[in-house]
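ingest -> fold -> write
write: protein_1
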Amino acid sequence: MQSSSLLKPFLSLFFIMCFGILNAQQPTRLSGKIINAKNEAIAGATVEVVGVGKSQAANVEGRFSIALEPGKKYTLIVSNVGYDTKMLEDVEVKAGTDNDIQIVLEVSNATLSEVVVKTSVKKESTSALINFQRNNTAVSSGVAADFIKKTPDRNTGEVLKRVSGASIQDNKYVVVRGLGDRYNAAIINGAQMPSSEPDRKTFSFDIIPSSVIDNIVINKTATPDLPGEFAGGLVQVTTKDVPTRNFLNVGVSFGYNTNSTFRDFVSNERGKYDWIGFDDGRRDLPKGFPSSAQEYRALGNEVGGTQKQLDLTRSFRNDVYRQDNSRTAPIQTYQIAYGAGKRLKNDAQIGAVFSLIYRNAKMLYDVERAQYEQAGNAIFNYVDEQNRYSTTVGAMANIAYVKGRHKFAFKNLYNRFFEDNYYTRSGVNNNRLQDIRLWSSFLNQRSLYSTQLEGEHQLTNSGIKFKWNGNYALNMKQQPDLRTSLYVNPIGGADRFEVDPDDTRRFFSQLQDHSAGAGGYFTVPFNLLGEKQTFKAGGSVLLRFRDFKSRIFRYVPFSGSNFNTDLNFLPYDKIFEPQNISESGFVLDEFTNNEDKYFGISALDAGYAMFDTKFSDRVRLVWGLRVEFFEQFLRTKDRSAEQVVINNEQWDVLPSANLTFSINRDNNIRASISKTVSRPEFREIAPFQFYDYESNYGVSGAPSLESADIYNADLRYEWYPAPGEALTLGGFYKRFVKPIEFRLDPGSNADRRLYFYQNAKDADTYGIEFELRKNFSFLNPNSDFFQNLAFFGNLTYIFSQVRFSDQVLGKDVSADRPIQGQSPYLINGGFQYSADKSGLSASLLYNRVGQRLSLVGNNSLGFPDIYENPRDLIDFQLAKKVANKRGEIKLTISDILNQKIMLYENVDTDKIYKKGTDRVFSSFTPGSTITLGFTYDFSL
């Protein structure tokens, strides 16, 4: 219950700040940001409102905010030393909306007298958006706040679907350039995020509401100021901290799933706090139970110790096996986002943005599972009737203070995920010649808390800046009382089903992962070759501590000679009642292994130097060097109780260069080369072995695992014909040296497969990317309909070749297949309609991800690779603004085609699934989901 105690003060802070700032009403304000052609903020730039007598200097972020009377149009004069003065006309200020503009100042020519550039606010917004797209430092794709506002997307996961080259798994995990979890990373507000899944290198983006996002950028190539551990994409999310206006946005939605809603739902009895994502203690180990397996086993050698073991066995709750029948209610999602800002004395500002999200769902899936011998005969055929109960709670709290050249911010993120998958399995195991019945409650509790304190300071009038960040994160995972009850019977036999004690188990585990980091950098502008240049240097440190413990038990006869064998035939929910825990009945046997716990520490120290060099208006080179020193320590024991210590140290020198040649204002050619890395996680090097009954295979770490080096090259052409429009075509090459793969252990047998982590020898990946975003106004410039209609689509195609050591053949083998987790192609497309006047918006989205290599097999042993079959995903959204455009009703139909999610053994050399040749490993249909939601933006 440590996570519960962590959540309480966080929620208290949330509500105290909400009510403390709620009455801080603001007049109507004109806000904006002043940047240069490199997308850099111009601190100290002066904004003057003509004829009103008001002016203001931009703060360290280049932002300004001036109180003005609504319903009028104004003229602004924006100036700064070294830049052409800009005059903006027809700037209209409206009440109850974001009056936010972005202004781009061009570097002045020192040989000329003062230049004043006249433009309209509409043209300036166009110029700023083009500037944002074409002047990113690296090959990247992104969306800004003004684009997000025009979509019905409610969280970051949904927004990311619209970014070129990206797709989303399970509505929350990002896949970039077809590369899965391992090769993507997340940065939020400048700090690298730990994985939200302790056993996967991934981040759950659905916990961040879209209403608090300022912008999202996915870097596909490296620069020295970015972490060096990615190859697909680095997702950078910047959230709002000092909002341009006060807002309170509340939303609720209910979803109907065609497989699940209003149907019978079966599970074990729920705890009283399950609905908010916390176990009430009913699944914990009993109080007073021995703290280690050795202590419990030692009781068997003491006088009266066996009786103590019986008493301890009775102390385990047996009512947790009871079944509870209910109905599946609609999927429920509740969301609130609040932002407020207040002007203080001396033009200082304080602002805060908060959000809460809650989701609860009951889902039903019938999953077919099978495994096969090399000749194609089924080892087993099972059907799992799954009943998934899940609760997600997410919260965010950002507070910022800005005064002139200084800014301080305190940012917090919390996510709690609770899922109980209760499933009943039936089928035939031909290898054991048995009919089987299995009941299991597979519970996962995960929580992530991340906090950051950051500052930004302009130190000199020349623009030297210093930015720093301190951060801490706690990642927790608990699996309390993961239960399996297996009953067997000879195939076709008339006898009653009998318990199989070896696979009737209770498993308990707890993981805590702490990380603490700090970093900072200096930005120094200077003049060279008649152009403004930038030098950036900085460093960071990140420490992680992980502690993992698990215990596993099974029920065995207390005495072989006195055991009442009739007990073996009792129903699974009656067999372990207190009267059956006796000298003639059962007792718990703990077979926790020495390697079932481990402790790990890692440290990552990094430093970098980077130059942003302009040789002319057309040629720009961002180049430099990043150096990282990584230490990883893990301590555990082997089966013989000998201590196992893994201590790895590695220096990584990571150079990168990004060259941009601007043919003209709307056309770029980019080229990039870089080196990045992929490092093993604690779980991947720990020898801990866990058998996943749901997936029917074991998972083990590999202490010998090494980091992978990745060499990247990119070439891309970009054309930005109009705001929000783009056409890009590019190619990329990646060479992986010792890529980490999740593959089959050669020691696996027919119905007990074991997968582990192993370095392949090397791999080459070649890819092309095409993106098109086009407005339909060219069909009829005078038509509002075509002005509001746009198409966006992107295609990524990837070819890979992997070389690895085949332990059976005893030689290196080359395979024309993707690296584990990669897809050969990725297609995104859709139409978007958004009309500001009517408040109507709609989108039709299509997504298809090519056959993704899920599990690497071993063809020498007759175990083929396992792929995930492609699916055609079509989603439709229709939204309408109501109540003076403060409310919005949204209808979403997700996964309209409802095609099967299928994994298959790829028997032949062709990766495409062929019915009758390839063999189904698992498959189910998730159902289509129809969601109706309503959000309202209160006037504050």
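write: protein_2
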Amino acid sequence: MTSQQEKHPPLPRRAVLGTALGGAAAALPGTAYADQSTQDAPSTSTATVTGGGRRPRPWKLRNTMTTDGAWERFLRGQDLLWTRLPTLWYEAPFLGDGLLGSMIYKEPDANQIRFTVQHGHVQDHRPQFGSGWGTCRLPVGHLTLEPVGTITKVDWRLSLWNAELTGTITTTAGTLTLSALVHEEVFAARATADGDEQVTWTFHPEDALSPRHISEAPPAGYTANPPWTTRTTDDGTEQVLQPLTGGQTATAYRRTGDELLLSVGHSHPSDTAAETASLRSLKRATSYHALRRRHTRWWHDFYRKSFVSFPDQRLQSFHWIQLYKVASASRAGGPVMATCGPWLERTPWPAVWWNLNVQLEYWLIHGSNHPELDSLATTLRQNQEQLIANVPAAYRADSSGVGRSSDMFANRGVGRPGTGPEAGNLTWALHNVWLSYRHSMDEALLRDTLFPVLRRAINYYLHFLTPGSDGRLHLPSTLSPEYPVVPPQDTNYDLALIRWGCQTLIDSAERLGIEDQLIPRWQEVLAKLAPYPVDDNGFMIGADTPYAQSHRHYSHLLMVYPLYLVNWEQHEHRELIAKSVARWQALPSAHRGYSYTGAASMYAMTGDGDTAITYLRKFFDPTTRYPCRPNTHYTEAGPVIETPLSASQSLHDMFCQSWGGVIRVFPAVPSAWADLTLHDFRTQGAFLVSAVRKAGTTRFIRIRSLAGEPLALRHGLSGPLTVLLDDGTPARTRDRGDGTLVIDLPRGREVLVHSGSRPDLGIAPVAISEPGGAWGLP
């Protein structure tokens, strides 16, 4: 061993797993590669790590966000408010429990309030008619609250803390006082009347017809589902039974005093089980009060799992509303989120879209420490046989895939490379599963889901890679999602996913102790795969296909974000990254909301928080063509849930990044945000990070290890550092010389890092420096 190696011994192999999977070097034309840990290192280090030299003194965070009162006060400042009656779904309050969803707005052309009733399990089951008609989400119905007098105003609050809508409806006859929530697949409402007002509820069943009928005729041979029927049970519960061509949907509801309870059940292939399920859910609910008690307990526990506060009131509220939204739309074990979430409205997209939408929908659950919301990973685990059936029969022995759109069971075939399909959608979705694994280090997830499904997804590619005269492996024509040209060869979308997939399989096999016979093949692919096509404007769409017209997706830039295969810390790639992103944004006519959130995250990778926030704010600019809507939802030709959720991930990328095996604290905070608090922000390697920034300076970083993984910290602190374990003893550290500190942190232990004297270790909301109005219609 050389003296240099003695000074800086190599990281153990388990540390390299996170680095290789998150920041593997990419083969580019004419590019030589240096080891990242050395190429970025300055000649000297400015930080000196100390342990204080005094008797160990244990430390502890002073968290002010521990009581119900503190949380209720803070989240009340983030609530959505209405003093005007919403007339459209994207102005409306919304409720959900991951399955049942409701939006509340004015009944069109009537003096009534509509409460939509939709359910994530309710879909058709005729795959021969495609995902738009044959396996699409189907409507259930809606309730109306029908006052006697003419509605003159409303005063509503959607409480995030309680996940409950409360308020009043004022009419020319008096006042209706309302509260509503959704929990355990039950919609519950309580309404009382004053003056000459009365409470009248009516349920309106809707035909089980694809929402796509608004834009196109049904396919040839399609027949409508049978009409619904009604019945009343012995205890007075009303039921609507919707038979399907295979399956059943049943809605049960009853009114007792001031309360109304409603539940939806769906069964397939049984045509009778749904009616029993809906009645069983109502029986379990018993009353609004009983259901609310369980409901608020779940939500109060949910919010406490992490905390973030920053000084822009409108964006801070937006961020907390997205956490409420994703928990309303998804729960592990439930169906993967459709593009509209559980709130089905008029839309051409009544299904699950796999070429960008699904991936963006789930990113924010990782940093916010909510793995319990990951229905994507559970969907892929539970439907592995369907993923096999999706590829042509000749390849099912060893391959899997999924096409552009599907139902909740991932039922959609994928075409054969060479015929121009989107071949990479399953592999990209598996990157989300890998993120779930890296943020939890749950080996069962790696062993039972990620490794076997990714192995088959990459195998599908391997059948079609062919050597060229240049000695490289080339891919026949595949589609860069939604780029409107003839699909080229060597599409960057697929080359990036193949590189990421092969490296991930190699490292995962080593982690799991699997001597897989395909390891030499994966290594060969990494060594010989065609380089990414590049021209003077940066990354192309594919071979002989420049980026020449506006493209709302950033599929040709996946190697930059979110895969980080080509990243800012590889100095030789900075010019290529910069001009590629600039070229993408220079042709904006087709851009949509996620075009801005994606650019924000890419600039956050470069450490440029001011440019990142500039792009993010474009999503909130009402003068743009597709801005964020008043209730923080988003619409193009119909509801599209992924973009607001990805905007929260853009904020995460400004606050804390952990790709490439390094945790970066406050890497791209906008200069206007002098104060910022993070608590229990979850990172790759299964660490929980707490950090406080005041007056533009990081005051301290606390990290808790949940899995005992190697810890490399890009801390951003200057001067001598104090690095203490939770018992007050100095931690073992190694300064890599590039602003990164390697810290020995055992599983279950915490470390505190700060410079100067011991700071106040308080976790608390920061003061607002950029005031803003509430979301909703205040």
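write: annotation protein_2
The two ends are 68 Å apart (CA to CA).
The chain has a mean pLDDT of 93.
pipeline exit 0
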